[in-house]
Amino acid sequence: MSTLATSTPQPVVRPSLIWPIVMMLVGVLAVMLPMASSIGVARFIGWLMIFDGIAQSINAFRPNGVGRLWWKLAVAVLYLLAGIYFLLHPFLAVMALTFALALFFLVQGVLELSDYLFIRRGQKSSWVLLNGVISIILGGMIWRHWPSSSLWALGQLVGIGMLMTGVTRLIMAVAIRKSTGKLRNTHVPEVQAA
Predict the structure, then answer these.
(1) What is the pTM of this model?
(2) How far is 89 from 45, CA to CA, in rounded Å?
(3) How many structural domains is the chain composed of?
(4) Which residues of 7-42 are buried (b: 16+ CB within 10 A; e: fewer)?
(5) How far is CA 105 from the centre of its chain?
(6) In angstroms, what CA-CA distances link 42 with 45, 172, 192?
(7) 189 φ/ψ angles, rounded to the nearest 5 degrees
(8) Cα torsion angle, 133, 136, 139, 145, sign
(9) Residue 158 confidence (pLDDT) above 90
């Protein structure tokens, strides 16, 4: 008795090329207009804080929640007030976020350097060292020129991040499209069972 094994065609996933290109264009725009993009980031974070404050206040009254009601409400009010403050005073919010960004880069750089000391005999450990040094330099540049660095740092870094993410996604999408095109053109032979 022989049976034919047929393969059912699987749907081919073709990632969009539009979204990576849009992300790259928005990234270039953010790099070209760093102050506007910095204010946009501050407003976005302000809205996130407001929505989180609302969610925290709803969560405070859940019957199975963990923690005291007054503490949860205090956290919710703090998020709400910080979000409203970020929306009402975007330039001060940009300054605060830039300061936090400088601290983040400095701490990340120190941690990367300490990590390098433990793994320096490993393969590719020089990349950890390079990342740590660049993070410290970047954090130091932002810190040294703060608060004037608030005018460019946040928007530039967000723009560069979006641009690089768009480039990466575009490269990945093209590679996936090429590989699925090769798979689609190959013929799967039928197998007969004995």
Answers:
(1) 0.65
(2) 12
(3) 1
(4) eeeeeeeebeeeebeebbebbeebbeebeebbbbbb
(5) 15
(6) 5, 30, 64
(7) -70, 150
(8) negative
(9) no
pLDDT digits (tens, 9 = 90+) for 22-55: 888 988 998 898 888 889 889 999 999 999 999 9
- Is residue 101 within 8 A of residue 153, CB to CB? The reply is yes
> Domain for residue 1, yes or no?
no
Q: What is the pLDDT of residues 93-136, one digit of tens each?
A: 999 988 888 898 899 888 888 888 887 776 667 777 888 888 88
* Tokens 């709400």 belong to residue: 80
CA torsion, points 91, 92, 96, 99, in degrees to nearest 10? 70
Q: Note whether residue 151 is domain-resident.
A: yes
**Amino acid identity at 149:** S
Residue 160, token pair as written in the block: 């560069």
Determine the Cα–Cα distance for residues 53 and 36; give it in Å rounded to an integer: 26
User: Which residues constitute the domain of residue 128?
Assistant: 18-181
